[in-house]
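Record type: monomer structure entry
Structure origin: computed from sequence
Chain ID: A
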Amino acid sequence: MCVLPLWGSSEHVVQTKPSPLTVVVTGASGYIGSAFVRYLLQQGRYVLRLVTHSDPDRTLVGNDVSTYLVKDFCEASQWEEVLRGADIVVHLAGRAHMLKERASESAQQYYQPNVQATAVLGEMALKHGVGRFVFVSSVGVNGNRTPVNAPFRESDNPHPHNAYAHSKLAAEQKLLYLAKSGRMEVVIVRPPLVYGVDAPGNFGLLKRAVLRSWPLPLGAIDNRRSLVALDNLVDFLAICMTHPNAANQTFLVSDGEDISTSGLIREMSRAAGVSCRLLPVPIWMLGVVCVFAGKARTINGLCDNLQVDISKARSMLGWSSLVTPIEGVRRAMLGVRNNEANR
């Protein structure tokens, strides 16, 4: 029998299947996926089936690792071999939110990879007796801004603000419907901006600007934003795979310490050992310039407040972050991955 510890308790959960558990990870060669796989490889407790729709990451190898190339995630037959005998699915694949995207095209572009593919995978996982399905969604399902000190909570009504967030909400709803069968547990995780080595999006843009010592007109921004270090997110996902209290729950996750955009840039500069060049340009002036430059979405993501309450993750799962924001930023700026930091 496979005996797994129950986090936050001295009790144990007894699985009805011989160990180790077989875990299917989609998006295994992606930014979050590759870090998550490395984390699981460190644990040495799982048989891993890595799914990608492009060339696999050749560094993700091990005796209990198999790689599957799935060209069409919406084709049910392509999941037969992948899911046969699997215990857990962690679904990270999908179309990510893009900084440069035509609004008129985005809804259609997101539907197939994020909604339809998730529904097909969920149905096939249920068919093959998968016990738990962990889905990485987005805080965008809750919304894109909060009042100061009024963080999002899992119990809030969804308020998706763009096509990407709408697609994630639709995918969540498909999976929760499948969970009603009582034969497969679903766990939904909604992270905010994920930062780390090789991070895409706004963090990647800021990192390049800081390393080049570019003057940034963001010194007047005094907002509060919840972020999650890549190392913290993969640790949280691993807990969601097996913790009994996670079954059929939705969780917001973050580092647990919020930071302003200007404060983040100062920490990034300090970690990289470069001069911090922040200019106190009034926010209204930034807004006008960015609107005319077609960058309104980017500046909103840097100036607005976006906070999440992670008390549910802490109380139900006994989870606490592995690294502080300061350490997370240091690793991101210096190119230190979790497996390197632990050597």
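Annotation 1: The chain has twelve helices and eleven strands.
Annotation 2: The two ends are 31 Å apart (CA to CA).
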